[in-house]
Design brief:
Layout: E1 5-9, H1 13-30, E2 34-38, H2 42-45, H3 50-53, H4 61-68, E3 74-78, E4 90-94, E5 103-107, E6 121-124, H5 127-136, E7 141-144, H6 149-157, E8 163-167, H7 168-174, E9 182-186, E10 200-205, H8 210-217, H9 222-238, E11 246-253, E12 256-264, E13 271-279, H10 302-319
Parallel strand pairs: 1-2, 1-3, 6-7, 6-8
Antiparallel strand pairs: 3-10, 4-10, 5-8, 5-9, 11-12, 12-13
Helix pairs in contact: 1-7, 9-10
Length: 332
């Protein structure tokens, strides 16, 4: 009997759901069964705010230790929670097709974000969302929020909060029904989300068996990898952590990469923005599993072009004063 591949994942319902999707795809690609190995991280057991825990890597460290120790064969991460620095011995071998990258405002009655009244309590644990909220509607009161998706939605249902802001991708992966609550999607042009939001990362050891690496590579979607490379390079060049008040979104449209990035002060009063469109090259088109990354000359490599695009936009932000408003505690 073929041994099962062991996929390490956080224990939360969302992590288990998204890991389950990857497990099914990997089982189909590899012809081997895949079992989930739940792993408890510091971020799962501590009730402190993400900012006070250090933000960057709070969910990833324990999982990566387990992978390096041989407790599992691969990991699935929410890419927006993953530090930009790659640890020795590990490699992100696939970024499956991205889900909806937008944020969603959840309320009981469908009141739009701009119409929330004076003193309305809006929950979020993200400094970036808090800054955007304060800028978009300074009448609201931002409530620091932890907990799983169900508990956050429950606080709106129970009237403890007037609204919460969540990731559209998480709601979709959990299959959350739009029953007694109302959902307002916040469009990316005016409300850019965290770099990598909506995307997953499948991580393996550098010395993983070639058979496993090849099977995982079949899950990779190159347009997703191109976009998230540009977004996360913005964070790297800014030296900002993945929970800094920075929004960045990139999208591959035809042969072009569109990238926008915004840095906010924590109070939302000030923002610095930059956006550009970059050519990926004639005939650019990729299918899942067809990434030519390391095999292409740098000039023809869309991943390298995406990294240069992210660097270019980040440098524009720095020239406009971004270094003065990225919080020091958010840097790695």
């Amino acid at each position: 009997m073929t041994s099962a591949l062991r996929l390490g994942t956080r224990r939360s319902a969302l992590a288990m759901a998204q890991s389950g999707h990857v497990a099914d795809a990997l089982a189909a690609a590899s012809g081997r069964p895949v079992e989930l190995v739940p792993i408890v991280s510091e971020g799962d057991v501590s009730r402190a705010s993400l900012a006070s825990l250090g933000g960057t890597g709070v969910f990833a460290t324990r999982l990566r230790e387990a992978l390096l120790a041989g407790e599992c064969d691969l990991l699935v991460h929410s890419l927006k929670d993953l530090p930009t620095a790659q640890p020795p011995g590990l490699v992100i071998a696939a970024t499956p097709t991205r889900e909806d990258a937008r944020d969603v405002l959840v309320t009981r009655d469908g009141t739009p974000i701009d119409a929330l009244p004076e003193g309305a309590l809006v929950g979020t644990g993200s400094p970036r969302r808090a800054a955007q909220l304060r800028r978009r509607n300074p009448r609201v009161v931002v409530q620091d929020l932890r907990g799983n998706v169900d508990s956050r939605l429950g606080r709106v249902r129970d009237g403890e909060l007037d609204a919460v802001i969540l990731a559209a991708a998480g709601l979709a992966r959990l299959g959350v029904a739009h029953d007694d609550l109302r959902f307002e999607s916040l469009e990316l042009a005016a409300w850019p989300t965290a770099p990598g939001q909506g995307a997953l990362a499948v991580e393996i050891r550098e010395d993983a068996p070639a058979e496993l690496a090849a099977a995982v590579a079949l899950l990779d979607d190159e347009p997703t990898r191109v976009a998230i490379t540009a977004e996360r390079t913005v964070l790297t060049v800014l030296e900002a952590g993945c929970h800094a008040p920075v929004g960045a979104h990139a999208e591959v449209i035809g042969e072009e990469l569109h990238l926008q990035a915004v840095v906010y002060t924590l109070d939302g009063l000030h923002r610095i923005a930059a956006d550009r469109t970059f050519a990926l090259g004639p005939g650019y088109a990729r299918e899942p599993g067809s990434s030519n990354g390391a095999n292409a000359a740098d000039g023809a490599n869309p991943i390298a072009r995406a990294a240069r695009a992210g660097s270019d936009v980040a440098r524009r932000l720095l020239e406009r004063g971004a270094a003065d408003i990225v919080p020091r505690e958010s840097t790695p």
